[in-house]
Amino acid sequence: MRTIFAHRGVSSLAPENTLSAIKLCTDYQVRWFECDIDILHDGTIVLFHDSTLDRCTNRSGSLFALNRQDLDQIDAGNWFGDEYRDERIPTLEQLIAMMNQYQLNANIEIKSGDVSAEASHRLLAGLDRALNQLDDGREYIISSFNPMLLAEFKRLRPQARVACLFETHTLNDDWHMIMEWTGAECIHPQNEGLTQQQVQLFKSKGYQVNVWTVNTKDRANQLFNWGVDGIFTDFPQHLPKYSQLNDV
User: Fold this and answer.
1) pTM (2 decimals)?
2) Which biological process terms from the Gene Ontology are attached to this UniProt entry (predicted)?
3) What is the pLDDT of residues 80-133, one digit of tens each?
4) CA neighbor of 160 nearest in space, from 190, 122, 134, 121
5) Residue 224's pLDDT is what?
6) CA atoms within 13 A on the CB side of 9
7) Domains along the chain?
8) Is the pLDDT of residue 244 over 70?
9) Mean of the per-residue pLDDT values for the chain?
């Protein structure tokens, strides 16, 4: 099975983690996308990768310091291009509505959280509630680099499919214990340095393997030939459609 995940939406053509980037999936027949979620001071859950606003908005400072009403004053698109001026940071509720409207599926990455345990608990509880609003037939994977968050979310929502994210330097001999501890069905290793032997080991243990972030056709083809189930890419529009015929 071969699945293409549009990384932070079609982030090579539109500002990452915005509704515009996610809607572009429909233009390129990409059924799965990846996005990041975090929580604001008032408990609003939003799509955003960084803990600060500096890189992808017209503002500076902490994401967590914001409240929902602040979102109307923040431009999350003009940095990418004039045509995306006044693009807003989306809320999780808006994301769920878009998934239902366009029949899209999502890998939702929970950011590790550098504010407090209490904020992380609110993030998990809010995500659990939001997923109840998905239409029948919509699919999702919940991923994180933080195994504690994944284990807690799996406890909250046992029916959720969860995935452990690993960077190359954190993919140590204890990876299988971490997968078992969290109850994960999927492993998401970093592309750089990943070997065929590692992929074969993951598959032999019964795990689904989705690799991040793969931005060339030849590497995507190699990984699929090794047996990986999916890849995350910034350029889904450049990859052959044959690799999107089957979902995870």
Assistant:
1) 0.96
2) lipid metabolic process
3) 999 999 999 999 999 999 999 999 999 999 998 778 999 999 999 999 999 999
4) 134
5) 97
6) 22
7) 3-244 (3.20.20.190)
8) no
9) 95
